[in-house]
Automatic annotation (TrEMBL):
InterPro entries: OmpA-like_sf. Residues 126-138 have a biased composition (Low complexity). Residues 99-183 are annotated as: Disordered. It comes from the Bacteria. This is OmpA-like domain-containing protein. Residues 164-173 have a biased composition (Basic and acidic residues).
Length: 331
């Protein structure tokens, strides 16, 4: 009956595969990897360790805070932001006017070269050679024929009484004593031969005057920092387009901001202010910063033109001190 056997075989194969898959981790029916681990034995054949913390309770969600923390008011936060912005602008201006000079480090002093002591063995050989030359010269002088004399009969035969030259005994010299360390003389100052007591400088300024009902801060007597009157310390208005330092190529992922500005124009004039990251007030540095600010403004203007902003509606300006490019339409 082929019409019965064919579905029966299909269902039996399907149930067999399902049983094998479901019992893969069973201790009775194992996969080939399980059989292999069982043959290896040891720690490999043991079941896996449970996950750490499986026996602990789930974290109690009710302990999490349900209310947001108390934050300062929006007005106070804006005031703090403006104060920090002014401090940053003032610091940039001070660094530009009086930049820090890089100290010139002098080269390292040259160490004195130690004088090489003469080799004692070489000195000994030189002295021996000199003594041998002197002795040979004396023997040669003695071996010469004597000059003829008038009274040859009265002359007695001369005996060879030349004694061998003795080598001078080497005297052992004591090593030189080590040099004494250089010590600076003791400093003794005399002020009119009178004992003058210098008052100690206090660490903190004197405490301010106190009034009943008023809390005066500890830094009330400190002078306020110098702030030039003509320097605007507030952050420039407008949308900021960031640039890397000393570069006229804007940072990526800012095309959406340019597109939104182009859509919000509504026929108004767009002012593009470019800043050149000036770090000095020298004429050369100021000129380079203005050129960089102008290049940045031109780059942003081309991006606006690419978003269907007419060229006649764009005004570009360059500034030496500042960062990036500001786009605004409120002028």
């Amino acid at each position: 009956m082929p019409f019965i056997r064919q579905p029966f075989l299909r269902y039996s194969l399907l149930m067999g595969f399902l049983c094998l898959e479901g019992c893969a981790n069973s201790p009775v029916i194992k996969t080939p990897v399980g059989w292999y681990h069982n043959l290896e034995g040891g720690i490999v054949s043991q079941p896996r360790l449970p996950v750490p913390g499986h026996d602990q309770t789930y974290p109690y969600v009710g302990l999490t805070p349900t209310q947001p923390p108390a934050l300062p008011s929006p007005a106070l936060r804006n005031e703090i932001t403006d104060s920090l912005t002014k401090d940053r602008t003032l610091s940039d201006w001070q660094n530009t006017v009086a930049p820090l000079d890089i100290p010139k480090i002098p080269p390292a002093p040259q160490q004195p070269v130690a004088e090489s002591k003469p080799n004692t063995e070489q000195a000994k050989t030189a002295a021996n050679n000199q003594n041998s030359e002197e002795s040979s010269a004396s023997f040669d002088a003695v071996g010469q024929d004597p000059a003829p004399e008038a009274n040859a009969a009265d002359k007695q035969p001369v005996q060879n009484t030349v004694k061998p030259v003795e080598k001078p005994k080497e005297s052992k010299k004591a090593p030189p004593p080590p040099p004494e360390p250089v010590v600076l003389p003791e400093l003794r100052a005399k002020i009119d031969e009178q004992a003058v007591v210098i008052p100690a400088i206090p660490v903190n300024p004197p405490p301010p005057s106190k009034f009943p009902g008023f809390n005066i801060p500890s830094d009330a007597n400190l002078p306020s920092p110098f702030k030039p009157a003509a320097l605007p310390l507030e952050a420039p208005k407008g949308e900021l387009i960031t640039f890397p330092i000393d570069s006229d190529t804007p940072n990526p992922k800012q095309d959406g901001l340019i597109n939104s500005i182009a859509w919000q124009r509504h026929g108004r004039t767009i002012f593009v202010h470019g800043y050149g990251d000036a770090y000095s007030i020298e004429p050369k540095d100021q000129s380079q910063a203005l050129s960089l600010g102008l290049l940045r403004a031109k780059t942003v203007a081309k991006m606006l033109i690419a978003h269907n902003v007419p060229e006649s509606s764009i005004v570009i300006r360059a500034h030496a001190i500042g960062h990036g490019v500001r786009i605004r339409m409120d002028e």
